[in-house]
Amino acid sequence: MGKLLRCITSDGCVSAMAIDATDIASRAEEIHDTSAVVTAALGRLLAAASMIGAGLKGKNDTVTMRIAGDGPIGHLVAVSDAEGNVRGYAGNTVVELPPNAQGKLDVGAAVGKGTIAVSKDLGLKEPYSGVVPLASGEIAEDVTSYFAFSEQIPTVCALGVLVNPDLSVNRAGGYLIQLLPTADDGIIEKIEQGLHNIPSVTQMMAGGSSLFQMLKTALPAFELEELAEQTVEYRCNCSEEKSKSILKSLPPDDLQQIYEGQETAEVVCHFCGAVYRFDQNSLDD
Ligand code: ZN
To answer: How remote is the CA of residue 191 from the centroid of ligand 1, in Å?
Structure first.
């Protein structure tokens, strides 16, 4: 199980969330059999989506994040429910690139240039959506850029995924710090000053920092109050019923073509790899 902590500064000006997404990124790696750099990219996006999802108000609200880049990964998708349970996938699951100048997995090069789109389904007629250009393809900076330009919310986002040599996930996590409408301009400076030279997310996790300590490290000039801690997990919501209705919604000609020369049609879930098989007669009921 992953763990997510939500805090607020005692002056009421800043919301801060942190996540241990190690189990979530591990599950994604198992399902999709991703290479290291794709595990890092998808794990970062899943961690971000979980935190943004956990900040949604309505219990049936969802958020979908889609990164479309011209790098070898192609695209990345992550969806979270309002409790921070997430699922996702990558366009190309196996990408091999040399490490970047810092010796790290080169997520920026694997993603490339493109856009980040965030769509929040808040139960209204239309989802609330915004699209902005990618800042670096490193995901955290792209999330910050999305909030700055699309929602006008000053945001600090840090995300990290450490992959073992055997491709399993060592650690994954992150934090999301956002100014609340009550904050004045001086607060931004106070936050930025605190962020100089702080260790990376995975360094803090490896050093045994709790999620609360991680947020304390990122916000040294503030008193923090814990609002809630919750468990979060990789969770898909696909079902036989939904898969059947997808098939049934296809135009009859397309359906005929699918069944040409075979007795069963398969619907494969992008998010979890589940395979649902239907023979043509079963679609009639
Ligand atoms: Zn599924």
So the answer is: 39
Burial 33-60 (b: 16+ CB within 10 A, else e): ebbbbbbbbbbbbbbbbbbbbbbbeeee
Measured in Å, residue 161 CA sits from the centre of ligand 1 at 23
In this predicted model, what pLDDT tens digit does every residue of 174-219 receive, in sequence order? 999 999 998 988 898 899 898 888 999 999 999 999 999 999 999 9
Q: Which two tokens stand for residue 161?
A: 């995924």
Could you tell me the CA-to-CA distances from 85 to 37, 80, 98, 206 in Å, in that order?
A: 23, 5, 32, 24
Residues 74 and 89: beta-carbon distance below 8 Å = no
Handedness of CA 252, 236, 91, 54 (dihedral sign): positive
Q: How far is the CA of 236 from the centre of ligand 1 (A)?
A: 5
**Sign, Cα dihedral of 24, 25, 28, 29:** negative
